[in-house]
Amino acid sequence: MVALMAVLAWAAPSEAKPWVAGTGAVLLAVFLAVSLYRHRQIRRLAEEIDEVLHSGRTVDFSNCREGDVAVLANELSKMVSRLSRTRDQLSRERNALADSLADVSHQIRTPLTAITLMLPVVERADDARERKRAVRELESMIERVSWLVTTLLKIAKVDAGAMHVEQREVRAAEVARRAVAPLATAMDLRDVNLVLELDEAATFQGDAPWTAEAVENIAKNCMEHTPPGGTVTVAVSEDALATTIAVSDTGPGIAPEDLPHIFERFYRGGAVEEANVAQPAGFGIGLSLAQALVSAQDGTLRASNNPAGGARFEIAFPKLVV
């Protein structure tokens, strides 16, 4: 710019040189002012981005104006906003993972500690019946750890999208029978009655094995919260909108403060259980797995309380064509 004005002043006639020099000085001043203004804009923009990235300050869109720098600022603001949301999401996921790992380690450590304490009892037991009882307790604790690990692996498969789900016509009554069959002995030992109310014609589009596992986890949870002499009911019904598999019990029900969290992993509930209800042996992930398995099949799982008392879990598979 300066070189151009110097050439023009040298080539201009002598009487025009003062005018050319004055005009050049004005243009030079305007050029320097604009350059300084743009430099300050870019520097301020760089400082704002640095503050957002390092101090967590939110992006302010109130100063958006027309112009190249404003367009650049807006695009950078969008990018920084996306980065900020990604950072927050990663932070939440990291905290959730840390909490889950802490819960897993605690849940595994508890039965392992009990196993460690039981081993000397087995070794020192002189009476055959006492030794047999201790061995049964050890087997039960080992089964709990095995169930926990297996369930966590299944949840991980669902989260990773690695679970293969078939979509074929399934008879809901057969799924219900398959689900409760492994629990028959446990219910007899707990003196819990099992009632099946099945619509044999009810069908849905889904995966029979995964649905049976979801129903089994729900029925197991209901059994563990039902006092001796109580009843767990599994009902299958179908209407024009959906096929429903409902599992209910005659236990104390679900506390209102626990209902919003009932499907959260490792959530055990804050309400005090009734004295005549056996202490649940689960780890707070059975219902979470059930919901994940149902959701993977485009179904819904809801929890509520029966008006007459007890908990109710309802799986619904909407009809694809009404």
UniProtKB/TrEMBL annotation:
InterPro entries: HATPase_C_sf, HATPase_dom, His_kinase_dom, HisK_dim/P_dom, HisK_dim/P_sf, Sensor_HK_Regulatory, Sig_transdc_His_kin-like_C. It is an enzyme of class 2 (transferase). Its EC number is 2.7.13.3. The chain crosses the membrane at residues 21-37. Residues 103-321 form the Histidine kinase domain. Keywords: Coiled coil, Kinase, Membrane, Phosphoprotein, Transferase, Transmembrane, Transmembrane helix, Two-component regulatory system. It catalyses: ATP + protein L-histidine = ADP + protein N-phospho-L-histidine. The keyword Transmembrane helix applies. GO terms for molecular function: phosphorelay sensor kinase activity. One of its GO terms (cellular component) is plasma membrane. Signal peptide: none annotated. Residues 73-100 form a coiled coil. PANTHER family: HISTIDINE KINASE 1, TWO-COMPONENT HISTIDINE KINASE. This is histidine kinase.
